[in-house]
Amino acid sequence: MKVLAGFACTLIFMSCFMIFFSYFLKEEQHAKSIEEFLTERTNIQHMPISKNSYIYDTHGDVIAVINKDMNRHYLPFEDIPNLVTEAFIATEDQDFFVHEGIDGSAVIRAFLVNAKAQTIEEGGSTITQQVARNVFLSHEQTYHRKLKEVLYAYVLEKEYSKEKILELYINTMYFQHGLYGFETASQVYFGKSSHELSLAETAFLAAIPANPSHYDPLTNKDQTHARQEWVLEKMKHSGVISETEKQAALNEDITIKYTKQSDAYPAYTTYIEHELKQLIAREDGYIERFNNVRNNKKKTEKLHNQLNERVREVLQSGVHIETSLDPAIQKKAVTTAHTYLHQWQIEGAVVIIDHIQHDIIAVTAGKNYQKYDFHRGFQAYRQPGSTFKPLLVYGPFIDQKNASIYSTVQTDRFCKNGYCPANAGGHYVGRTTLENALAYSYNTASVRLLEETGIQTAFSYLKPFNFSQIGTDDYHYSAALGGLTHGVTPMELTKAYTVFSQGGQYIAPTGIQQVKDESGHVLYEQPALAELVWNKETNDKLRSMLYRVVERGTGQGVRTEGKRIGGKTGTTNNVRDLWFVGFTDRYTMGVWVGHDDSSPMTRIQASQPHIRLWKDIVPALD
Prior knowledge:
Elements: H1 2-26, H2 31-42, E1 53-56, E2 62-66, E3 71-72, H3 82-92, H4 104-117, H5 127-136, H6 143-159, H7 162-172, E4 179-180, H8 182-190, H9 199-206, H10 221-237, H11 243-251, H12 266-283, H13 286-292, H14 297-316, E5 320-323, H15 327-344, E6 347-354, E7 359-363, H16 389-401, E8 408-410, E9 431-433, H17 434-439, H18 443-453, H19 455-460, H20 490-497, E10 505-507, E11 512-516, E12 522-525, E13 530-532, H21 536-552, E14 566-571, E15 577-583, E16 587-594, H22 609-617
């Protein structure tokens, strides 16, 4: 009796609803106002469809796919194979091109079945209704949701073409294992594009969305095959394929080649995502807004959240990020670093820049690096040691005093305001040339030069480099030897060293070249803004001095036959950090090694791991 009563009530309700809905569809004189009312209630202008974004190397090959919420390779309608659309129309909605979003007979039939079973067993939804559910609504099994689905479907049909609705449908269906859209399923389950699928493979994939867990091709392949047969029968019944084609498809073996999404260059692509955030912050005005609320913690936190949401929005829109990655050089840097860091049981990072093109072509992040782990290339702030001397001491001094590389400076013991640095190995040679003072890295000479230049004047030369953790609390004499409050990252320091190969101008190197939307329109690109750090004459002197460091000074270990190399070594107190940052005719490369906890490396100092690592990568830069 209870079942019969429920059946009657449901039938009456559904009949009344269908009569009402059919009535207002026919009322042409009121159509505009009804559409306006429904559009207001349904709000379909914003479609929350998350799409994959792609990162490309310098050759235009995809090196990473970014999907923050859903793995979806979105295809526009013109790129969807006809066989795919035909398969779903045949199985899901044969009257798709005829109805206006709702198939009344199918809905009534579903309600009768559900009322009899006292549960929702049959949907009766058109393709348009399924789009409404997939994009705007939840999948809860209630009549309330079903009613909203009908209303959304009606508005969708008024606002969009049938082709657009099919496009949305094909791209929003769920295929199990976090896969959304037919193209995504094709690439992951078969390792190829949907254009390359056979009829059998197309029907096999078309079987999954009806019940993704039940028709899971990895765990329930037999059930998927059974549904595939049903799909093929529907396609034959609709005239899409012949009996012969159906039988041939049924006889074809289906081989799953499940291909998990991979990132071959996680150290580089993680950095690119960081750089993208910086790029968006600058181009969308967030940096200026941060500066305006610098002392307001609450407003600063709110801005950070807004920036993170903006980055997420950009990535979910399906952008294409073109980068400067050189895969061969990246592989060489990663494998070489992996070998040495494991051998010496230390950590480290390598940054390689094409200073002619201002491109970051490779970066490593540490041994055994996994995507989004702590990235030592751009997140490790370390004391730079003597590698800081050319930037903070010698460059400003020569530029201010118009000094010659043969001008002399005292290397004997020196104290200033209680600060008394010592030279490595206790070597004090009296007066020596600036060239020799840098080549042999005399600390006392560096502090004297900094004093003569003036601390504030010397630090003003660092402004173009945008060292993120350097501030007024670093304005002391120990900075001449790289003694900073927080330090610099390998990325920051290597980028700064490109000034020596740019005639004294600094053009910030970048990994991102352009960020484009799905249509190929440029959304963001890096401006090549040149800032003069010091004049060309000063820069020529500095290059000559840095060449001498390698020819006869502390950097002799990196000498390589056939290459002229300039650069500077750096060692911090108790050998907590070892650096070499240098350049060839085309490339600037920085190497840092150390322990994350800053424990000493005295045991391996004589092996010169930083020198050997730098030198072993250089041949790949030919």
